Amino acid sequence: MIKNLQDTTTLHNGVKMPWFGIGVFKVEEGPELVNAVKFAIKHGYRSIDTAAIYENEEGVCQAIQEGIKEAGIFREELFITSKVWNSDLGYESTIAAYETSLKKLDLEYLDLYLIHWPVEGKYKEAWRALETLYKEGRVKAIGVSNFQVHHLEDLMKDAEIKPMINQVEYHPRLTQEEIQAFCQQQGIQLEAWSPLMQGQLLDNLVLQEIANKYNKTIAQVILRWDLQNGVVTIPKSTKEHRIIENSTVFDFELTKEEMQRINELNQNHRVGPDPDNFDF
């Protein structure tokens, strides 16, 4: 049972990762970004997820430095994730991209580094680079994002190290049962991006009924569903009251029947690109 914001899941290499974090996708550099990450740290979040393509690693850096100071915590208490972008997938170029992200974040290491998208013919070389960084102790954990079962099977044919994480679009309209079952079987931790489906579920009647029962918001019900499904979640918000609200999901528990009702909302509907059909 996950009790609070600092509770962790243990990845297959023994590294502990918080179940709950904040994402900063599409939050531009500037005070809004810095304040959002600082609010999150202040209110107990310890996991922050960014990526090279978000072009906000420098702002995240500022927020981390100020947030650590104000909260009186150590860098080691935070779990920082970034991702290598498609144009940098290749052995040397992935290592160079890691260096660039580290420099922008002004950190000595990352807790987790991911391949952002499974670009055909490129992700294996990139994975080799991640394995090198990992073996050298320069990153605590490595993983992938947006990988389908066949991508993972293909990667693992040649990989020395199995990915620790697969971060995918995951919400009640896209329950990803096949990839979830595969990752569970392989000991790969599933992580949700866009858990709230960019706000598209916030008027759903089934979710509203469940939310009313617990005196919670629909967002809180969805995030609770993530956790009870054993999925790490990183909702994005820049508003302090929402950052607090999103994380207030440890004081209630959905029943088996409610979990099932939410699972049944699945329509295999994506709000983001299809990992089998993207061109960037």
TrEMBL record:
CDD domains: AKR_AKR5G1-3. Substrate binds at H116. This is Aldo/keto reductase. The active site is at Y54 (proton donor). Belongs to the aldo/keto reductase family. The record marks K83 as: Lowers pKa of active site Tyr. It comes from Cytobacillus depressus. InterPro entries: AKR, AKR5G, Aldo/ket_reductase_CS, NAD(P)_OxRdtase_dom_sf, NADP_OxRdtase_dom. SUPFAM superfamilies: NAD(P)-linked oxidoreductase. Residues 31-266 form the NADP-dependent oxidoreductase domain. It comes from the Bacteria. GO terms for molecular function: oxidoreductase activity. PANTHER family: 2,5-DIKETO-D-GLUCONIC ACID REDUCTASE. Keywords: Oxidoreductase.
